[in-house]
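<goal> How does this chain fold?
<sample>
Here is the protein in question

***
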Amino acid sequence: MTILVTGATGSVGRHVVEQLLERGQQVRALTRRPDQAALPREVTVIQGDLTRPDTLSATLEGVDRLYLFPVGDGAEAFVERARRAGVQRIVLLSSSAIARRFDFSEATAEHHLAIERVVEASGIAWTHLRPGWFDGNALTWAQEIRAEGVVRAPHGAAAQALVHEADIAAVAVKALLEDGHAGAKYLLSGPETITRVEQARAIGRVIGKDVRFEEISPDAFRASVRGALPEEVIEMYLGYWALAVDQPDPVWSTVEDVLGRPARPFQQWVAEHASDFA
């Protein structure tokens, strides 16, 4: 069986590729820059861009199943190509923003919901993955922690049910390879909520360094990332963190229900990435 992984060099896609290889599958990876992909040699790497259909002529030839990264522009044309090519199953990386709305989340929710609807309308068997905040988002703190042992951020009391990217991938691989997941919309979280202050402390414990959380105002955060992030993304982040102060993220049991084992805690992710912070 040949499985195409789009977004194969992303934080979830890399895990999907690795776990499919461990299960003995033939993996084809789509990326815009094959020369920078750094994927295992067993992977067939194909150059292409989901937003440019003219680059995708041979991408789906002989593909049985598809892991789809949520690119908006071009999604409808690509899914139609998948249908014509005989793809039997699609697992879509979506977002929990669809189910948990907050200030300025509408654009993100509608973006993902639109792609879900495209996939559902294709007639191909589908599974949607709706993860929350990724563990790997903590890497945005790495430079400050290395240099000063500090995290400067707003809403330190925001309680997040962070999800490990490898767990998202493991659920994706289950849905790609095994029956019983068609039509599912899986909300994915980690096993517990942990505040942003506690996240900083957890990193410090792992690297053996005192890491303090320095609360800054939303306006100070806006100023620190303006130009690096779109305005709507900045406001979405602030809206989410503010909500999570008063309404902690829900902890969903989906990872354990699907995989038959507990979801990985944030501390495990930190241990795996300690060198990024030390």
In short: The two ends are 41 Å apart (CA to CA).
